[in-house]
């Protein structure tokens, strides 16, 4: 992917992980509290290095009982159901769609070893791939520079899709 940026994910646990850049600066922290609320924090020192980064600095995933689908919130925006943030257009499709705060639709193509985020024009804007055994990180998230404006939404929906896959939603 040309003109892109790479974040490394440490921890295979989608409920508690961190994403760092190649200089080991923390970009995102993903944490779950005992009340089944996850906070995904875009770290300010990292974001300030990238003028392309826009949107909310935090998102929250509120799960229902026994980690059933609940809703998500970007910053102070209105909440939306987790189901709407990972819509399925065809019954047997592995793709999941979401609408970013900029009003544009994106889809995650889900595969066993990774996920690919594609915009409405068919261009890949992000790829998440699990690492090799010799790597010190769990996965690599490659994001086009043009998609840094929605990086919080990308990390949030990536995390949501990984959790949904694990919990068989």
Automatic annotation (TrEMBL):
It holds the Pfam family DUF6593. It comes from the Eukaryota. InterPro entries: DUF6593 (IPR046528). Residues 13-158 form the DUF6593 domain. This is DUF6593 domain-containing protein. The lineage of its organism: Eukaryota, Fungi, Dikarya, Basidiomycota, Agaricomycotina.
């Amino acid at each position: 992917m040309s003109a892109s940026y790479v974040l490394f994910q440490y921890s295979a646990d989608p409920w508690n992980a961190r994403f760092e850049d190649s200089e080991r600066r923390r970009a995102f922290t993903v944490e779950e509290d005992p009340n089944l609320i996850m906070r995904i924090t875009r770290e300010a020192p990292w974001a300030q290095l990238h003028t392309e980064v826009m949107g909310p600095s935090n998102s929250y995933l509120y799960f229902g009982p026994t980690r059933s689908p609940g809703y998500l919130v970007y910053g102070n925006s209105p909440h939306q159901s987790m189901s709407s943030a990972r819509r399925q257009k065809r019954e047997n499709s592995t793709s999941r769609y979401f609408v970013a705060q900029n009003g544009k639709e994106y889809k995650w193509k889900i595969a066993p070893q990774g996920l690919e985020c594609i915009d409405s024009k068919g261009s890949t804007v992000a790829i998440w791939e699990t690492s090799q055994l010799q790597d010190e990180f769990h996965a690599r998230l490659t994001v086009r520079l043009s998609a840094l404006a929605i990086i919080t939404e990308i990390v949030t929906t990536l995390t949501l899709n990984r959790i949904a896959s694990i919990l068989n939603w």
